[in-house]
Amino acid sequence: MAMTQKTKSKIEVAFIYLFFLFMFIIIGYPLMWTVMMSINPGTNMLVTKLIPDTITFEHYLWLFTDPGSDYLIWYKNSLIIAVLNALGSVVITSLIAYAFSRYKFFGRKYGLYLFLLLQMFPALMGMVALYILLTTIGLVDSIWGLLLIYLGGQIPFNAWLVKGYYDTIPRELDEAAKIDGAGHLRIFWTIMLPLAKPILAVVALFNFMAPFMDFLLPRIVLTDPNNYTLALGLYNFINDQFSTNFTRFAAGSILIAIPIAIVFLLLQRYLISGLTAGATKG
C-alpha cells in the first residue's frame, strides 16, 4: 500500500525534530560542560565532573579579586575594542555602501568586484603584511593597532552587504527629497540610515562579537599582557605555567557571553529582518 501524504508529512516532521535534537546535543553538551566546569572545585580538568558534588563560585571571584589575575584588564581592553569596532564599522560601512549604491563614478563596478575578490582570501594571508604595517606606524603591541586592522578588515564584506540593502530602498525617496532641497548628506542621514537600521544592527553585532572571539590576530600583534584581549589572555590560563587552570578558563569564557547577550537583546528587534536582507539585490 502506498504511503499516504499524511504519513509522509509525519515522517518528515519526525526527521526534522531528530535533526534539531542532534544539533542541540552537539551545541549544548560542550556548553553545559563549560558551565559545570566553572562551578567545580579545584583547577584540574581531570577531576571535574559534569554534575559537581560541591558547587562553588570561587573561580569567578578569583578572576575579579586575585591580584595575580589580569582578567579585568583583558575584559576592559576587549570591551573598548568591541564598542569602537562596532560603532566605527557602522559609520565607515554605511558611508562606503551609500557611495557605491547611489553615486555613479569611475571605477565603481571594479571596486565592487574588488570587494568580492578580497573576500576570497583568508585573513591569514595578510598577517605578515599587517604586522609590517603596524610596525611602520608604531602601533604594534597596541589595542589601537588591533582596532585599526578590525576596522579595515570588515569593509569588503560589510560594504557589499549594506550596499545590497541600500539598493532595495526605492530611489524615488531620494528624488522626492532632492525636490524638497535636500542634499546627499541630508538624504543619507534622514532617509537611508533610518531605513537601513536592520542591516546596520547586523553589522554592529557581528563587529562587536569579533574582538571577543578572535585569537589569531591578537596573538600576532599583542605581546604585553596589559594589552591582551580576553581570547588571548584566557589562552594563557591553559598554556605553560597556567596549564591546570581549566576551571578558571571555563569561568572566564562564560563571562564573555554577557556583553554579547546584552547587545543582542538591544538589537534583536532589527536582527531578524537584517539577517535575511542585504543579499537580495546587489
UniProtKB/TrEMBL annotation:
One of its GO terms (cellular component) is plasma membrane. Residues 75-267 form the ABC transmembrane type-1 domain. GO terms for molecular function: ABC-type maltose transporter activity. Keywords: Cell membrane, Membrane, Sugar transport, Transmembrane, Transmembrane helix, Transport. The chain crosses the membrane at residues 12-32, 79-100, 112-137, 143-166, 187-209, 249-267. Pfam families: BPD_transp_1. It comes from the Bacteria. It is found in: Cell membrane. It is a multi-pass membrane protein. GO terms for biological process: maltodextrin transmembrane transport. CDD domains: TM_PBP2 (cd06261). The keyword Protease does not apply. Belongs to the binding-protein-dependent transport system permease family. This is Carbohydrate ABC transporter membrane protein 2 (CUT1 family).
